[in-house]
Specification:
Layout lengths: L10 H19 L6 H7 L2 H15 L3 H24 L10 H20 L3 H21 L5 H13 L5 H18 L4 E6 L2 E6 L8 H5 L10 H23 L1
Antiparallel strand pairs: 1-2
Helix pairs in contact: 1-2, 1-3, 1-10, 3-7, 4-5, 4-10, 5-6, 5-7, 6-7, 7-8
Length: about 250
Amino acid sequence: MKNKAGLEISSMTLHVLAMVFMLCDHLWATVIPGNDWMTCVGRIAFPIFAFMIVEGYFHTRSLKKYVGRLFLFAVLSEIPFNLVMGSSLFYPLHQNVLWTFLIGIFLIWLNELARKKKTLWLRIIVGAGTVCLAYILGLVTFVDYNCGGVLTVLVFYFFRGRKWWHFLGQLLCLFYINAELLSGFCYSVDLLGHTYFIERQLFALFALLPIWLYRGKQGPYNKTLKYLYYGFYPVHLLILGLVQMG
């Protein structure tokens, strides 16, 4: 008798969840301000997208085409992103999240080159070097989520797998990234005569729940869905940017 499969979600479900969470966050930031629950929910989106970028790297049939599509949509997303973030066509101090992912993919590629050499010391040096590069490039390029964003991609690369230490590594690293590198606004909670502070960015850790329920199942997939995933980002930003300016 076969064991019943546990609760499991597909790649498609992860994409849809991430898009919904991201939309909540961007609605809060533009046309529906004041509803803080929306940005708390929105914190969950980025780690899911970062995880899917790593999975995409290993499942794509052509890394060159994969990077090419991300680059194309990064360029297409720049003006919509500028409209939302800076209310102008040109806003050099903050770049959209697809550039964050492109940097992450480049660093994964460097690690994979070292892995193919099958030399442990080289892998360690390259791994440590790419962590430093992630920190530097994330800051100097002004990409979304800065160094914390690029490092999040590397976390899902270095701890890719389903063993207990993969999950623990993801949890501890994401806690540090979100509590320290991406820290910002805190909520104060009074409980039993004491005041506690909850870092808003820590809501991002809830992304690990759906991520850990993913076991490699793709779900429905075709060209329409593929370009829906890519196109959702610039299209919804453009709409929100125009509404905000109007």
